[in-house]
Structures are given as C-alpha cells and as structure tokens.
Amino acid sequence: MSSQQSRVLVQLRDLILKGAFLAGERLAEIPLAERLGASRTPVRLALATLEHEGLIEPSSSGGYQMRRYTSREVTDAIRVRGVLEGMAARTLAEQGASRQLLRELHDCLDAGDETVDKPTMELDDYAAYVEVNTRFHHLLVHGSGNLALIRTITMLNGQPFAAASAMLPMQSSFDEGHQWMKQAQRQHHAIVHAIENGQGYRVQGLCEEHVEIACMNMEYALERPEEAAELLPGIHLVAPEHTPAPGDPRLRQRLARGR
What is the pTM of this model? Predict the structure, then answer.
C-alpha cells in the first residue's frame, strides 16, 4: 500500500467516525478525491479496502455507500479477533518462532517506536503507524501457520472496524490518539517479548487485552449519546454489556499489564 493510499484511508476512516457521511449516502470517487486533495486512484483503492472491512457497501447506482452497523457487532468482532490473534501468538510462543519472523517483528517494533516516540504526531505519522500496526498483526497471524485461523481472521476483517488498524486513531484529538498509540506500541513490545520467552498463556492474555484499546475507542465515541449520532452515522446506540467506561480505572489497570 502506497503512502498516499494509507493517508487517504486514514482520512476516510476518520471522516466516517466523525459523521461526515450519512447511512446510505453514496461515496463517489471524484468528490472524495477533491475533498481530500488526492488523485482518484488512491481513493478508489481506499474505498475497496473500506468495503472489505465492512464499513461501506456497493451502491445499486454504482460505486459505494455508507452501511448501517451496531456498536455491539463492532466490539464483538474486535474481541473475537483478540482471541484468535492470541491463539496465533500462543502457537508461536509454544512452538517457537523462526528467526526470520522475529526479525520482521522487531523491524515493526523499531518502525513503530520511531513513529510514536516523538513530541507530536501528524496525519502522515498516523498513516505510517497504521501500516506498521497492520504489518505486525499480519505477521502474528500468518506466522502461526494455522490456515483455518488465517482464513477466519481474513473473514473477520470484513466486519466493521474489526481489522487490526481500523480503530487507529479513533480519538477526538491527535494528542489523545498519540497517547493511545504509545500504549499500543508498549503492548506490541510485551507480545514479542512473551513470544521470545515461550510464554504461551501470557501472550494469549496480552493479545486479548491489546484489542481493548480498540473497544475503548468505540466506547469513547459512544459515551455521550447526544454526540454519538455525529460520530457514528447510522449506528444503533447500544453499548455492549459489561464493558467498563473509558475512564474506569479497572480497564486502565488491565491495559497497563501489557506494558
């Protein structure tokens, strides 16, 4: 994926969450390209990616349109992905990861550190981290060699916001999103460390905790019902049961264990 396509993809996801499009609204390449200051090709490719992720759907009049989805289906899919990625990482920890795979994972860690360990992050930095994050999760899943798991993850990534990078960043400001990316990066380090040390059960838990950042971002968008319609067009505002609110210290403690 080119840097321009990554940038456009981040911008479109952000616009979708902020309520720039209504449910059922047609998304045409030319107006979007003009709005984002990009050429049609990266917009076309980004729209195809968003369709695969389940955020948009084909329009009967051609092109794409916004689809309807619920907060429950989003968080359910994210947590299932956490369990499956945990299974993949546990397989690597217990059976041993190849030197090549570990080198590639460390390359992701280095690239991620370079992106988030700076005073501020700009849009291009977010796009770069999305690329690194996607690569990291791809390596975990495909490195396991479990074809059934790989196929299931691929299918799951077609659900709204379920893909590894679909909820990065999903905060009201770049500064706040920067802090969550730092937390995600610390968890990436903990996951690789657990794999290298053969800690199967630990890495399974770390992966399941890791996706709570994405769930937390969704809860963040829904914690103020009066604003939710502007943030998530067409969503049925039913928060998943037994999900701590973003400010709940119990969730922050769970996330901190991944450091």
Answer: 0.68
Place of tokens 């309520």: 19
**What is the residue range of 100's domain?**
71-256
Q: Six-digit token pair at 72?
A: 């429950």
Q: Which of 211, 72, 75 is nearest to 137 (CA)?
A: 211
Domain count, the chain: 2
169 and 215 share one domain: yes
- Strand segments (E) across the chain: 26-27, 56-58, 64-66
Estimate to the nearest angstrom the gap between the alpha carbon of 221 and the chain centroid: 15
**Which residue do the tokens 């329009």 mark?**
59
Whether 91 and 29 share a structural domain: no
Q: Are 42 and 5 in contact (CB under 8 A)?
A: yes
Question: What residues contact residue 117 under an 8 Å CB cut-off, 6+ apart?
Answer: 182
Q: Where are the alpha helices (DSSP H) in 117-199?
A: 123-143, 147-156, 174-196
Q: Find out whether 177 and 169 touch, Cβ atoms under 8 Å.
A: yes
Per-residue exposure over 23-49, b if at least 16 CB sit within 10 Å of its own CB, e if not: eeebbbbeebbeebebeeebbbbbbeb
Q: What is the pLDDT of residue 103?
A: 98
- What does the pLDDT look like over 215-247, one tens digit per residue? 877 776 666 545 444 434 434 322 334 444 444
255: left (phi over 0), alpha (psi -120 to 50) or beta: alpha
Distance CA 108, CA 249 (A): 30
